[in-house]
Amino acid sequence: MTIIYRPIFDPLEFDTFGCHPFEDDPATPDRTNRQVFVRRQVADWNVDMKDGSQLQFWGFKDPDISGSDSPWPSKIIRVKQGQIFHCEFKPTKGAHTIHWHGIEPTPMNDGVGHTSFEVKSSYVYQWCAHQAGTYLYHCHKNTVLHFEMGMYGVLIVDPLTKPSDTRNPNYLYDPLPGDLTPGITPGAPYGAESILVFDDVDPVWHKLDHNAGMCGDDVGLDKFNPTYFLINGVHNGLSQIDRRTVTTTQAGKNVLVRLANASYSRLYVTLPVDAWIVEVDGRPLRVNRAKGAFAGPRKLAANTRLEIAVAQRYALWIPNIPRGDHRITGHFHHWITNKRHFDGTAVAKIIAT
């Protein structure tokens, strides 16, 4: 046996996988026919904050949609379970990647530049949507900074539904014989869907350079002091009335609430009605003895605090929602002290009539 020794610290390896990841535009390995195709390009724009100031944000625009130059969060991507997905990505402003958070594709298509490559000019990402659920997509170059700058969007994998069902209902996952969930039926259709991404903004970070901090330089990325708090890009002064954060439905319908934390705070979310946790990080919670052992849905009693970690996603099931205005409240707490930030509350709403 031959042993090849290398130094404990290899400057060349650090440079390649840390400071200066490899940039390239390779052909997509094992490229095959697609069922879904989207395009994404990098864009930057200014966003009005609650106090009237403007901050620069970066994100992924869809060049096929007119007026999509300032999407924050970036446009939702929806595919169906089992479909082959292609995304033609053109950074346009330096090298970037798209990481498909929770999808687990091949390394070349995972969008983690430190272990594969960063896209220099153009690349077609390819993966198969294996599991229905709630995911994110985001840039994985200088990840901590670029995620804060707004380079993320929601990715949803919907289950296949029965072709014979002409109503085309919405499901969290495919209902199967043997599904047993006392008190609720998350395998049943839902009548309304609320998709809420909570975020916070530290204006100091939005003045930093594209590569700030990547090479070990201290630019203050260990200090995060947000002063703005938002849901779906809507600041907390408007989040209870904006169409992007208010969902309307009929009383008595099943409602699916998808929650994601894009902030760097400890996020606590409460609902005023009983709900059930039916999915965590793209994995359903279900009871089906015929299919194997699963973690079952967990009841979240009204006004119980649910902590959502950074980049974590939950799906909550509200069966037969009662009539009324239901506030979904997010409290943002400091990541170290766990004290609530000043003005650190943002509220979305479900109106059931």
Tally of separate helices: 2
Task: Give the ordered list of helices and strands.
Answer: HEEEEEEEEEHEEEEEEEEEEEEEE
Q: Give the oligomeric state of the chains in this entry, treating copies of one chain as homo and distinct chains as hetero.
A: single chain
> Approximately how much helix is present in the residues?
under 10%
Shape: globular
Number of β-strand runs: 23
Q: How many distinct domains?
A: 2
Largest beta sheet, briefly? 8 strands, mixed
Structural class: mainly beta
Spatial separation of the terminal alpha carbons? 74 Å
What is the correct CATH architecture of the largest domain?
Sandwich
Low-confidence stretches: none
* CATH class wording of the largest domain: Mainly Beta
Keywords: Copper, Metal-binding, Oxidoreductase
Domain Plastocyanin-like: 73-159
InterPro entries: Cu-oxidase-like_N, Cu-oxidase_fam, Cupredoxin
Pfam families: Cu-oxidase_3
